[in-house]
Amino acid sequence: MQEQIAAAARAPLGKARAMLAMLALGAASAANAEVILHAFNWPYATVQARAAEIRSLGYASVLVSPPLKSEGTAWWARYQPQDYRTIDSPLGNRENFVAMSNALRAQGVKVYADIVLNHMANEAWLRPDLNYPGQRVLNLYAANTAYWSRQRLFGTLTQNFLSQWDFGPATCIGDYSNVWQVQNWRLCGGAGDVGLPDLVANSWVVQQQQAYLTALKGLGVTGMRIDAAKHMPNSHMNAVLNATIKSNVHVFGEIITGGGAGELEHDRFLRPYLDGTDHGAYDFPLFAQIRAAFAFGGSMNRLVDPGAFGQALPGNRAITFTVTHDIPNNAGFRYQIMDPTDETLAYAYVLGRNGGVPLLYSDNNESGDNRWVNAYRRTDLAAMIRFHNAAQGTDQQVLSFSDCHLLFRRGNRGIVGINKCGTAVNTTVSMNNSVLWWNTDYRDVLSTNVVRITSASHTFSLPARSARMWLRN
To answer: CA–CA separation, 104 vs 221, rounded Å?
Structure first.
């Protein structure tokens, strides 16, 4: 495929188009292509109240913040577990979670939960021991047994469930390219921070984590995002996530990399994770290609078939995105924030292409950018989701591309055109032997524009800095 694309790029215009008409991208299972709404840091009651709206906008699943015992108003506090055995945080408790799950299920929407297995809360400022949840929390449980029994998932709340024997050394990761350090030492914040106590995969820890995930499944969870998967050995994840727990559950991990094949983090962390588990993962290799394609001086030819170069995950393993919660909310990742228009065009690519499960991020302005608040209900994104859902199960074929644009079809149901440049692009494509329907309206879901093919060649017009997603009437 790589040689074919390169040859097409070098060929004369007419011949290139004919060659490109024969280049089809790989397919992913339609069942695995449903759009997930990442309701980042939303209270469970808010998700419950919006369940019908979420379904009406075309989402098939909602990823919610970690359901466990945690304290503190900051978003990152949700990723510092005190106890797996109860659900209670500023976002809600077990009762709120159940009500939300029931409301989503009534709408036919699946519940995905953010899962934190790598570490427990950093409470060194509060106490010297590693007993969790600790005496202070046990006293809270004892002071209101009726309330806490309603928030209980499993276990006995009169005693701690973890001790010093369940954690690795109190050593901070010093070299993030060192696999052993990354997977066995602590995540620390610097300036003397002792870090997040890192759990080991002894039999007791594995049993507790399995009991936790089993309880969540009992509350209707059918998808699990494994936070900080990069920091866990495959042996730990595979011990916890056995066949019984993974049955009828979509699991994907967070392994942040700077690119695909050949990039250090990909080769040392993501590739071994994909080889050693059957889980999905964030498609950071594809995201790196998206950022490079839309960057000043970048070329859209990077997005013709990135998987052929090892720069995108296989469709049945990939979680695709244009922004994750870490990017705007952590200083070290903010350089990855795309220009707002480019991010919208990238969404047209992610939601228009075949392959991967798209994840759409919507927050409550935790970063202060005031950019992704209520993004889930944006009219343009909702229209893109409608195109995505209508095109599920169809193949993808590139029809035309240049540094500025990419044009591809989705079976005979739709056509996607993206122009990142500041001037309009008109590209003529042969319709001989095309699977696209003639004398039929293809209507852009983002505008009033209509394409109607009536001859052996058709010229597609792509306005500057715009996307077209034409769907067959």
So the answer is: 11
Is the whole-model pTM more than 0.90? yes
Residue ranges of the chain with per-residue pLDDT less than 70 = 1-32
Q: Give residue 32's pLDDT.
A: 52
Q: Which of 91, 84, 56 lies closest to 69, judged by CA?
A: 84
Tokens 């003639």, residue located = 438
CA 225/CA 36 separation, integer angstroms: 11
Q: Which residues are catalytically annotated? A: 227, 254
Q: CA–CA separation, 459 vs 178, rounded Å?
A: 52
Q: Edge-to-edge, what's the strand order for the sheet holding 405-410?
A: 24-25, 396-401, 405-410, 414-419, 466-472, 441-444, 450-452
HSE-CB for 107 with a 13 A CA cutoff: 24
Q: Show the tokens assigned to 212.
A: 């936790």
pLDDT of residue 427: 98
What is the model's pLDDT at position 27?
Answer: 32
Strands 88-89, 425-430: pairing kind = unpaired
Question: Which two tokens mark 94?
Answer: 């077990």
Q: Tell me, what's the pLDDT at 190?
A: 87
pLDDT value, residue 23 = 37
- Rounded CA separation 74/399 (Å): 47
Q: What whole-number distance in Å separates Cα of residue 67 and Cα of residue 89?
A: 8
**CB atoms near residue 199 (< 10 Å):** 23
Give the C-alpha separation, 437 to 432, whole Å. Answer: 11
